[in-house]
C-alpha cells in the first residue's frame, strides 16, 4: 500500500450516515473519540483527511447507496494522506465488494480502536481486519459529541446494543452482535447532563428496548434486576421536564408494566413503534417473530385500553419467502383492524448470511412484491388521514423543533404522539413547548394555531 502521511495539526474527519437512528447515535460516539485524539469535525467532505461512511446493510438498496457514494468520492482517496473507513453495519458480502476501495472497516463494537487504526495507517500499515464483535462494549464511558442536532432540542441515547432475536430475514444480529444493556446509572447520568445542556427530548434507543435488562451486581447477594419498565420509570421520575421517547419495541417482549409506566408518566410520550412485519401467522413463523397475529392484536387492544391516547406506528415487509396472496390479504386485514397512525413499509431484500437467505426461497417475483408494497402504502395513507382527522379541534402540546419546510412564517414541531404539527410562529422560539389547536390536517401533518 502506498504510504499516506498527514501533518497532525491538520486532522479533520467527516462522517456520512447511511443507516438508522442507532447509526446516527453511533456517529456521535465516534466523533467524541476522534475529538479526543486531536481530530476536528469537518462539515465538508473535501476538507477532511479521514472520511468515514457509517454504513447500513439492512436492505440491498442501502448497500448500493454506500457503494455509489464511495465511488463518487474515490478521487479524494487518491490524494496523499486521505483515508476512507467504513464503520457501522457491514455485511460480509459488502466487505468483500468494497475491500479495495477503502482503508479500513470497523464494526459497531470496535470504535474504541479508531485511534490505534489511524496511528497504524499513518505509519503505512495495512489495517483491514477488525471484525471482532465484542460482547461487552456499551460505550457508557464515552459522552457522545452531539453534532447532528445543532439546536440542542432533541437527541438519541442508546440503552442497549445488538439483538438476540434472530428474525430470519435480518442482518442486524450478524453486524451488531449479541444484545447488551448499558448500566442505568450511566444512562441516568447522561440524561441529567443533557437536561443541563438544555435538551428537551431524549429518545432511548435499542434494537429491542423491551428486552433491556440490567443485573445490579453485589446487592447483598440478591440479584436486583432492572428491566425496561423500571428504567423508563427511573428516567421519567428523575427528569420530569424532559420528554422521553423510545424505539424500537418488539411485540414479543413488550410488557404490560411498560404500558402502565407510560400511562402514569406525563413526560413519557404516548407513541409506540411496534413493527408487525406481516399479518399472516404462516409468515410470522417463517420470520421467527415469536408472536401470532392474534397475540399482536391483543397487545394493540391492551395498549389502547391502558394508554387510550397512544399513537401506534409499524414496520411491514412485503414479499417475504412463500408469501402468497392470502398472506398478503392477512396483512391488509390486520392493517384495517389496527389503522396505524403511520408506518414504514419495505419489500423483502434477501441478506446473505441470514437464516432466510440460506434456508428459504426468495420466491415472490419482484413485480408482485412491488404491487403488494404499493397496496399497503396506499392503504396506510388512508389510515394516516383517518387517524389525523381524530385530532381536528383538539389541543396539542407541541415541542417546537424548527422552521416549517413549507413556509418560514410557520414552526414545525411534534406532539406527544410523534405527529408533525405546523402553525404560525408568533413570539415563540425553537425549544418552546406550546399548545396548538388543530384546524386542518393532511395524512402527514396536523395544522393549527397556538392558543
Ligand atoms: N428486507 C427488507 N426489510 C427489512 N427489514 C429488516 N430486514 C429486512 C430485509 N432483509 C425491515 C424490517 C425492520 C426494519 C428496521 O427494516 O421491517 O423492522
Ligand atoms: Fe432485526 Fe428482528 Fe433484531 Fe429487529 S428484532 S434488529 S428485525 S433481528
Tell me what you see in this structure.
- This protein is α/β, with parallel strands linked by helices.
- The chain has three domains: 12-122, 3-Layer(aba) Sandwich (Rossmann fold), CATH 3.40.50; 154-389, pyruvate-formate lyase- activating enzyme (Alpha-Beta Horseshoe); 395-450, OB fold (Dihydrolipoamide Acetyltransferase, E2P) (Beta Barrel).
- The protein has helices at residues 21-36, 60-72, 74-77, 92-98, 114-122, 172-176, 184-197, 228-238, 256-264, 281-286, 293-306, 325-338, 355-359, 366-389, and strands spanning 12-17, 40-41, 50-55, 83-88, 104-106, 154-158, 160-161, 180-181, 201-205, 213-216, 224-227, 243-247, 271-273, 311-318, 342-347, 395-403, 410-414, 420-424, 433-441, 445-450.
- The chain has a five-stranded parallel β-sheet, with helices on both faces.
- Strand 4 (83-88), helix 4 (92-98) and strand 5 form a beta-alpha-beta unit.
- The protein is globular and about 65 Å long.
- 5'-deoxyadenosine is lined by residues 58-59, 169-170, 275, 277, 315, 317, 346, 348-349, 351.
- 5'-deoxyadenosine binds at residues 58-59, 169-170, 275, 277, 315, 317, 346, 348-349, 351.
Amino acid at each position: 500500500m502506498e504510504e499516506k502521511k498527514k501533518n497532525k495539526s491538520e486532522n479533520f474527519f467527516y462522517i456520512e450516515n447511511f443507516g438508522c437512528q442507532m447509526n446516527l447515535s453511533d456517529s456521535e460516539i465516534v466523533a467524541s473519540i476522534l475529538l479526543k485524539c486531536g481530530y476536528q469535525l469537518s462539515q465538508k467532505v473535501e476538507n477532511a483527511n479521514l472520511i468515514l461512511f457509517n454504513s447500513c446493510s439492512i436492505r440491498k438498496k442501502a448497500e448500493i447507496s454506500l457503494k455509489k457514494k464511495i465511488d463518487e468520492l474515490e478521487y479524494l482517496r487518491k490524494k496523499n494522506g486521505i483515508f476512507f473507513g467504513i464503520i457501522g453495519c457491514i455485511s460480509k458480502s459488502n466487505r468483500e465488494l468494497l475491500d479495495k476501495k477503502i482503508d479500513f472497516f470497523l464494526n459497531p463494537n470496535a470504535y474504541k480502536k479508531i485511534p490505534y487504526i489511524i496511528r497504524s495507517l499513518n505509519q503505512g500499515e495495512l489495517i483491514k481486519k477488525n471484525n471482532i464483535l465484542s460482547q461487552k462494549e456499551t460505550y457508557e464511558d464515552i459522552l457522545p459529541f452531539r453534532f447532528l442536532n445543532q439546536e440542542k432540542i432533541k437527541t438519541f441515547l442508546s440503552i442497549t446494543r445488538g439483538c438476540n432475536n434472530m428474525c430470519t430475514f435480518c442482518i442486524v444480529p450478524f453486524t451488531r452482535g449479541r444484545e447488551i444493556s448499558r448500566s442505568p446509572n450511566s444512562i441516568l447520568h447522561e440524561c441529567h447532563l443533557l437536561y443541563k445542556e438544555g435538551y428537551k427530548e431524549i429518545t432511548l434507543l435499542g434494537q429491542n428496548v423491551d428486552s433491556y435488562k440490567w443485573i445490579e451486581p453485589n446487592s447483598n447477594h440478591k440479584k436486583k434486576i432492572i428491566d425496561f419498565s423500571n428504567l423508563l420509570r427511573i428516567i421519567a421520575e428523575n427528569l420530569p421536564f424532559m420528554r422521553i421517547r423510545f424505539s424500537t419495541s418488539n411485540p414479543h417482549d413488550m410488557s404490560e408494566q411498560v404500558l402502565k409506566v407510560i400511562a402514569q408518566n406525563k413526560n413519557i410520550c404516548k407513541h409506540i413503534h411496534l413493527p408487525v412485519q406481516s399479518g399472516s401467522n404462516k409468515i410470522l413463523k417463517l420470520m421467527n417473530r415469536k408472536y401470532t397475529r392474534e397475540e399482536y392484536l391483543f397487545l394493540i387492544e391492551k395498549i389502547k385500553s391502558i394508554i387510550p391516547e397512544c399513537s401506534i406506528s409499524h414496520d411491514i415487509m412485503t414479499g417475504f419467502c412463500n408469501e402468497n396472496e392470502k398472506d398478503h390479504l392477512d396483512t391488509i386485514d390486520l392493517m384495517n383492524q389496527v389503522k396505524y397512525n403511520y408506518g414504514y413499509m419495505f419489500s423483502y431484500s434477501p441478506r446473505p448470511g441470514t437464516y432466510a437467505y440460506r434456508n428459504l426461497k426468495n420466491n415472490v417475483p419482484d413485480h408482485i412484491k412491488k404491487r403488494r408494497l404499493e397496496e399497503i402504502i396506499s392503504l396506510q395513507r388512508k389510515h394516516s388521514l383517518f387517524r389525523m382527522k381524530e385530532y381536528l379541534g383538539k389541543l396539542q402540546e407541541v415541542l417546537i423543533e424548527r422552521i416549517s419546510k413549507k413556509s418560514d412564517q410557520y414552526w414545525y414541531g411534534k406532539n406527544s404522539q410523534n405527529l408533525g404539527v405546523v402553525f404560525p410562529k408568533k413570539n415563540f422560539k425553537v425549544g418552546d413547548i406550546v399548545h396548538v389547536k388543530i384546524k386542518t390536517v393532511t395524512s402527514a401533518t396536523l395544522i393549527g394555531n397556538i392558543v
